[in-house]
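Hi again,

Forgot to attach this to my earlier email, sorry! This is the prediction with zinc ion bound. I've pasted everything inline since the attachment limit keeps bouncing my files.
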Amino acid sequence: MKQLLFSIALILSGVVQSQSLNIIPEPVSVKQPRIAASYYLNAGTQIVALGSGLENSINYLNDYLNRFYHFKLKVTNSPTGNNVIRINFERMDNPIAGAYRLSVDDKGVYIAGDNLEGVFYGIQTLIQLLPVPGVAYRLPVSYCEITDYPRFSYRGMHLDCSRHFFSIDFIKQYIDFLAVHKMNKFHWHLTDDQGWRIEIKKYPKLTQVGGWRDGTIIGRYPGTGNDSIHYGGFYTQDQVKEIVKYAADRYINVIPEIEMPGHAMAALTAYPFLGCTKGPYSVQQTWGVFDDVFCAGNDSTYNFLQDVLDEVMALFPSKYIHIGGDECPKTRWKKCPVCQKRMNNLKLKDEHALQSYFVQRIEKYVNSKGRSIIGWDEILEGGLAPNATVMSWRGEQGGIDAARQNHDVIMTPGDWCYFDHSQSQNEDSVTIGGYTPLEKVYNYEPIPDSLTTEQATHILGAQANLWTEYIGNESKAEYMIFPRMSALSEVLWCPKGSRSWENFERKLITQFKRYDLWKVNYSKAYFDLKTSVLPSKNFDGVLWKIDNKFNKKMYMKFMGSDSIWGYAGPQLIQKSGVAMGYFTIDNRTVEVTQVFHVNKATGKKITLTADPSPSYPGDGGFTLVNGIWNEKGMARSSELLGFLGKDCEAVIDLERPQYISTVTVHLLKDMNSWIWPPKYIEVSTSTDGVTFTPVKKSDEFKLINGSNGAIKINFSLFTTRYVKVFMKNPGKIPQGNPGAGYESWLFTDEIEIN
Ligand code: ACM
Ligand code: ZN
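Structure tokens for the complex follow:
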């Protein structure tokens, strides 16, 4: 009654109040009455299901209500009164399954689906009309009229369960994350170098042996050691069936990935006959790409894989079976007599053609069972298998090429869709690197401009990948996918051109409350303070600038000191220490810290003789004297200058003659990524900045702090105004190393003078 009076009061006073809804992904069309009003869902609400096969949707709604609102609804064919949710089918003829209509008015809730998926998505939308958090027993649902349907047929998320193993309970939860985002493909990465995770009855050693490793590297690759912990696990066939059913009840198709011919070390360890050298092999304890792969010459390899695929296809009804195909070195095949014999017999021109033969032979087998293969974009090399769908991960080009060859494509380009990348510039745990913030994901467009309308029909959709080298637990997995997965759901669902970042930002506040309701971990990077370091006018230090996009008042302090001041502009930093900036929003404090290492070079005028590579430009020379070290490794490539095959030469003007005794050059060394320390470093000095005298050349230096550190050059004390530091690029990478024959990278992030 109170509500009724209130509504009347609104009408009488002529106030028009439009309540914004918070549905993610945003529906295609939402109409709301001019005057806000609500229907109330409560424990007395009855569900009337007018079609058959609707149990999945009804059960989902009841489970959700029970979990988060602590009541369930009665299902009946003879309802009493108007407190009813009616569920039905209506023809909508959308080419992609999942269209629905939902209306809420004084007669209750009405959901009509074009098909079962449509009804299920209508239920998901109803759930998102409920208030968050779920405390009330009478849940207001705003009056509205929604018409909705998906843009893409492939709306996916991937999970790597090899690098780290995730429990069946977590897999179910992950599937529910997909369901609430109206996603419909779960790509389950089940085999890799670090563990084989699916029971295969004919080859029990795959899981008994291949499912376990005797340790894992500590920290970022190549690691600071090994934890020596026996690690592993696998899914039994019964568990797999349980997952497939759980997903199917949510209209999600599970696509298994069985990797071949590369990423096969776990399988080779279990059955060494599968490799070219016959082993012995071991389940890998570190990350990367390994030379030992399935032998492409022996028929026994193909027989084994066909046996495995037989069991896999019996477990997964999916039309698609993912066979990997990425990152397969040809090193062993080049030396293996059996592989070479196969190439000769078939007149194959090179090992890429052999890989193509491998994939095509497997494809033929999978096709003969009425299924289709998906492969990573490397399967384009050496010739595409005739019916393969390509998953484009090394950018979009593979997808573009495949679509032009009339092949179907799923877009998963690293820059937008790799959720193992950092989403904050201040991640507090190790990630694989890269920087893929929320807004970048949101603005991803899966259909490249360069495709014709006809070719574009081959882009089935997109998927985010969660590789788990640096994701060792469920909480971190949640942190990496949320909120980026919510952004991706709009990319995949909303019609082109109708997405709105501003509207998404508005809804995020409610979405964060939903994550809280679900008790999932999520990144708060959206609130991040933006920071930058700038040169000071007088070369007497550096300026630390902080900013927030909410126009909130910010504060600053130095750690270890009690004084706090309101931020009034870039702060001059003249001594080493940790500076902190923060603001509060929505009852949360958002903070950022920055470690400054101030020395005689900090903030001084610096000139580079030659520019760094456009891929790693940093802030030019200033990056080398900004007082900041690349202490978080490759996660902050913006802190580094990269020189490809070129030397780095910098001249620093100390402004007046000063005593110096050391020059320390901070570097990155990661030979697996083609990043080498300099061949030598030479320091020269000058009083006029024109004529330089070499003081010390050092080619025998030790890196401080292991691989990712610094080289220190000591002098006896002397006086100089100008210091020239020359870092010699070591040139072409020597044989026997990753990238042999290519130019090496030289990376530096700071020159310290003391
Ligand atoms: C991949 O990320 N290697 C497909
Ligand atoms: Zn071989």
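The pocket of acetamide (ligand 1) is lined by residues 326-327, 376, 393 (CB under 6 Å). The chain has four domains: 2-148, 154-521, 529-595, 605-753.

That should be everything now.

G.
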